[in-house]
């Protein structure tokens, strides 16, 4: 039994297209996260980030969570889950209220945020994040804290991240069928951004590319929040499938060849090396095919070029064109492909680095790579308790814990002024 005064347990769950991963952690006396257990299972019922087979996904969720629970010696009741498929959207809602020239008081801000409740609504979508950004006082924009200032009109820009309702409900239902509560559902780029971008980067402006197995999410972060995103239905698994199809080899071998011998950059040495892989349908121990490295590098390169071109156009679309100093951070399992950051840097013409999740006490090495950015980010969001996640739970979900500040006010307002 855990003592009743022990810090609460946090459960994080990332349901990806290739893996389902879980993490159990708690906070120490200084409020820092301490990981108690992790678990992982192959994902079998998720396509391009969408749950397409609830039963298979539920089993993977249950097993991954049980593994993390066993390692931690604890049992969790609910999880913070990620959502990273297409159908995520971000936008800005602006609201304004009349103040009548007096000094702005906290209650005016409450009223403003309450009136933002309708403004952030998106038909057919669930609002996952609604972060008040900057305030306007009369016609003066960019006010960080309006309380105490005189104004006739008070306004606020609210950054909204929303997702299509049906796929989100499927995630919610799958988790509940695994006998877990859903504490919150977080947009994957929000979680990954928190895990592998520095506070300064998130403040000054940075692009994050989460190269997953079947989905690549491109998001812009500025002013400490996510300000734009695009989802590309392509990922690192497409490279595996290309290799398997091009050479008629088993998927498992194609994956191994990609991870151990693959690279995003070609080299003259490729002409002198061969890699071995078993043909499709062959038994273990059968005679392998010998593929010249240059040939499979061509296959990898074609897909990498396509994904990079899509990323480039998403960045343009999002207005990430200037200043060139702003960098790009690459995360997700696909960021492990050798030289991918160098290749993208050449094409995008700006600094690209691989983003690994922030080191947490007790986080095993096996869960410290870029593929675990979202998982770690979920734990960080849960641990830091900032209000931008209080509006995440689906209408049927349990509300998140208490939080203060403007964001907490917005959430309180969105929940009907409680
Ligand atoms: N060393 C490596 N080289 C190339 N690819 C790699 C390497 N390591 C992992 N990957 C790829 O990363 C992908 C898994 O990434 P990740 O775990 O981020 O995906 P996911 O979260 O399951 O899926 P998604 O987010 O797309 O729904 C796999 O396709 C895997 O082949
Ligand atoms: Mg993922």
TrEMBL record:
Signal peptide: none annotated. The keyword Transport does not apply. Its main location: membrane. Coiled coil: none annotated. Cell division protein that is involved in the assembly of the Z ring. May serve as a membrane anchor for the Z ring. This is Cell division protein FtsA. Residues 10-196 form the SHS2 domain. NCBIfam families: ftsA. One of its GO terms (biological process) is cell division.
């Amino acid at each position: 039994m855990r003592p009743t005064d022990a810090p609460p347990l946090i459960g994080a769950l990332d349901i990806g297209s290739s893996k389902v991963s879980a993490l159990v952690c708690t906070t120490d006396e200084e409020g820092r996260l301490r990981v108690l257990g992790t678990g992982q299972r192959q994902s079998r019922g998720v396509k391009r980030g969408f749950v397409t087979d609830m039963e298979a996904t539920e089993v993977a969720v249950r097993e991954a969570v049980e593994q993390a629970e066993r390692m931690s010696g604890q049992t969790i009741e609910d999880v913070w889950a990620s959502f990273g498929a297409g159908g995520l959207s971000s936008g800005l809602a602006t609201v304004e209220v009349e103040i009548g020239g007096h000094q702005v008081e906290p209650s005016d801000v409450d009223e403003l945020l309450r009136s933002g409740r309708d403004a952030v609504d998106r038909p057919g979508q669930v609002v996952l994040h609604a972060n008040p950004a900057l305030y306007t006082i009369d016609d003066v924009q960019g006010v960080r804290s309006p309380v105490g200032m005189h104004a006739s009109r008070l306004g606020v820009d609210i950054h909204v991240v929303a997702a299509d309702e049906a796929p989100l409900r499927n995630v919610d239902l799958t988790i509940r069928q695994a006998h877990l509560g859903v504490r919150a559902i977080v947009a994957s780029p929000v979680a990954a951004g928190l895990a592998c971008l520095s506070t300064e980067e998130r403040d000054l402006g940075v692009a994050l590319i989460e190269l997953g197995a079947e989905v690549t999410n491109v998001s812009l972060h500025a002013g400490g929040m996510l300000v734009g995103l695009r989802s590309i239905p392509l990922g690192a698994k497409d490279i595996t499938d290309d290799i398997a199809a091009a050479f008629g080899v088993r998927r498992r071998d194609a994956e191994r060849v990609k991870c151990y011998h693959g690279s995003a950059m070609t080299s003259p040495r490729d002409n002198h090396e061969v890699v071995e892989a078993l043909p499709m349908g062959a038994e273990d121990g059968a005679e392998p095919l010998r593929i010249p490295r240059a040939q499979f590098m061509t296959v990898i390169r074609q897909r990498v070029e396509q994904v990079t071109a899509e990323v480039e156009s998403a960045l343009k679309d999002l207005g990430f064109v200037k200043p060139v100093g702003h960098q790009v951070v690459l995360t997700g399992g696909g960021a492990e492909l050798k030289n991918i950051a160098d290749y993208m840097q050449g094409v995008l013409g700006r600094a690209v680095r691989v983003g690994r999740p922030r080191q947490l006490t007790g986080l095993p090495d096996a869960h410290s790579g870029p593929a675990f950015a979202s998982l770690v980010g979920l734990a960080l969001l849960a641990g830091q308790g900032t209000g931008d996640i209080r509006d995440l739970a689906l209408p049927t979900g349990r509300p998140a814990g208490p939080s203060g500040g403007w964001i907490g006010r917005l959430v309180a307002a969105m929940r009907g002024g409680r």
